[in-house]
Amino acid sequence: MKVNYQERIEATTTELKIIMAGQQTVTNRQKVQALYLLKSGLSQSITDVAELLGGT
Q1: Which residues, 6 or more positions from 30, have their beta carbon under 8 angstroms from its beta carbon?
Q2: Stretches in the chain below the pLDDT threshold 50
Q3: N or C: fewer beta carbons within 10 Å in the chain?
């Protein structure tokens, strides 16, 4: 099943960048970065995000 993550993430890419910059821990920053990658279209799936962030 294909999920269109861009439509499901309500925050804009600009908002996600601001939120990401304010994160205090690497873990929290990576969580927001994952949302940013999906929203911006730079990643098409959770698997792509994991590979980009070094999770696999």
Answers
A1: 53
A2: none
A3: N
DSSP 42: S
Radius of gyration of the chain from its Cα atoms, rounded to whole angstroms: 11
34: closest CA among 19, 23, 49?
A: 49
Distance CA 28, CA 6 (A): 20
d(CA 21, CA 13): 12
Q: Output the pTM of the full model.
A: 0.85
Q: Which one-letter DSSP state was computed for residue 22? A: T
